[in-house]
Amino acid sequence: MGSAQSAASNPRFATASRAFTKRELEDLKSLFVSLTAQSQSDSKYISPTIFQAFFGISGPLASRLFELVSQKRNDGMVTYEDLVISKAVYEKGTRDEIEEFIYGLCDVNGDGFLERCDLEAVLDSISDAVFTPKNTQAALSSSKLVMKAFLSATEFSQEVEGKVENCMSLVDFRNWCNVIPSARKYLGSLLKPPDTVRPGFQIPHLLHPENLSPESLTLQKEHAWHILGALSQTGAQQWKLVYHSAINGLSFSTFMGSISSVEGPTILVMKDTEGHIYGGYASQPWERHSDFYGDMKSFLFQLYPQASIFRPTGQNNNLQWCAVNFSSDSIPNGIGFGGRANHFGFFLSANFDQGHSFTCTTFNSPCLSKTNQIRPDVIECWAVVTKGINDDKTELVRGTVLERFKEDRNMLKLVGLANSSE
What we know:
- Residues 217-385 form the TLDc domain.
- It comes from Dendrobium chrysotoxum.
- This is TLDc domain-containing protein.
- Helix content is 38%, strand content 15%.
- The protein has helices at residues 2-9, 11-17, 22-39, 48-55, 59-69, 80-92, 95-106, 116-130, 137-152, 170-179, 181-187, 221-228, 245-248, 252-259, 401-404, 409-415, 418-421, and strands at 205-207, 238-244, 266-272, 277-282, 299-304, 308-310, 320-323, 334-340, 343-349, 355-356, 373-374, 376-385.
- Strand 1, helix 12 and strand 2 form a beta-alpha-beta unit.
- Helix 10 crosses helix 11 (181-187).
- Mean pLDDT is 87; it is low at 388-422.
């Protein structure tokens, strides 16, 4: 009866209620009753403290979310009607409605303009909510550098009278969400119960040898969170390090031997001698081909000094490249992504001592490094695996391909290395 009366007196609530099933409304009501009891409000409202504690967020972003959910009344109360109305827009609205809500949410100071300081506060909130506290000053400094890379992907094109710096327009914000999809997932799931799988809150478990410290890895957990945003949620389980140039050496044959048993997707990460970090997600196994192959799940990414995701545009099918022991100049030996032969979006030669990166229409990606010609410093390859599979095989492979695969001559013949290795 109470809900019927509320709907009759509040047209916005009546419209919002129709976005939910009867069961969903019952669940929302149960949640509201539970939180009002904790708020000691005689079942009338949810207090800011209980609201923020339940949804697991804090700081300026949490205050701004409470302000929007309470319809900007500034009375310190979220009613049941407020909760239904907000979730109807935030979770059930059109894509444009949801992104407009999130855009307003990121304006944490509430002045109507999305400034750099607002986005910095948002990234601080993400860092606090998603990543465990850093236990050393060096680790904290490293994390801040990574988060700064997410900020570097932004554009602030909106000129505002009285503002010294430009602000972020809604178009700018939507573009940022496209290249930092994990941030978009995080900001779009803040009102989901914390006991559910909330997109944007997960980090893959990075499996690596015990004798290799996390700090010595190029791929940090903030990077993994960023890449995960472009994958389905099933990619959040475990990523296993299968090749590291500092241990295995800069050897293409060893690389191919190390990854040959990987049947699923891999993540190739490179740090070049300029200090830039970037790579590609290969949805298909690395196998010898004389032409491009793969599918539209592959993508390129930047991690530092700017972080961005570049998905396939559909303009061509030049996705993955893996050429071994070809003698034709038109078939460059090495691995790569996008573009065309000898003009890839990202390419490492078979010598693993050089490569290149050019703008390419395959992923609408820019040159990923400082210059088109690149020299590797560290190369890592991570296998995306399902939790529980191959957990005991975390040691990296050492030695030549022949030492590892004496029993598998067919694989060596496939990649054309058997005769040359003898």
